[in-house]
Request: fold
Amino acid sequence: MNVAVLVDIIKETKSNWRFIFESPLYDNINFIPGQLVQLGFMESDEANGVPEYMVTRNYSVASYPDGSNKFELIVTYLPGGQMSKKLFFDSKIGDEFYYKGPMGVFTLPDNLMERPIYFVSTGSGISPFRSMINYIYENKVPFKSIKLFFGTRTESDLLYRDELEKIQNELPNFEYIPSLSQESKQGFKEGHVHEHYLKLIDESSEKPWVYFCGWDRMISEGRFHLDERGFEMTKDIRVEIFG
Reply:
């Protein structure tokens, strides 16, 4: 594993914080947008006779390759989680972690002009899509159309809102579509994220690629609905599951 130094903590929302790491042994970190890293730290429980051991968790990289030696993770606090406790309560700027990667195959298709793409996420599942969209935006990568469906409970839970709204205003054929499941607000979709992209699929004659990122239950529900509509894994659907 490599060494990563925690260089910034940004409290994006109450339960989702951004953690910026720097890899001091490298001048830059090359990766493909959508990939993940395995983050780790050493833990021990000497009082109970437990020897030192490594705690690891996988996180999609939320930043995009920009030629630097930094990467960003956005982490959801989970009560009782060892990594959550470490990052939210027991970490400070300058602390060292271990990491492996970036790695993984949850990446953009080779030909972005071939079909529309629907990104579907909840919570910190927006991470790989934030990476992909910024990469496309910064590098002027041509694409047919991309819609980012982001489901959350309330407006205060929205992640990267200002950034994504700015890109939507400047990047033709990209649309940011947040939906709120526990709050009614003017200008926002209401209800769960699935109903909004499924409605567009049912109204369109063109089958998009659908990318899911989030917890298993959300992805299982989405796959069920798409299976009913003739979508197939890998050919039409790609997933990154948390937990």
Remarks:
- The longest helix spans residues 127-139.
- The helical segments are 82-89, 127-139, 161-170, 193-203, 216-228.
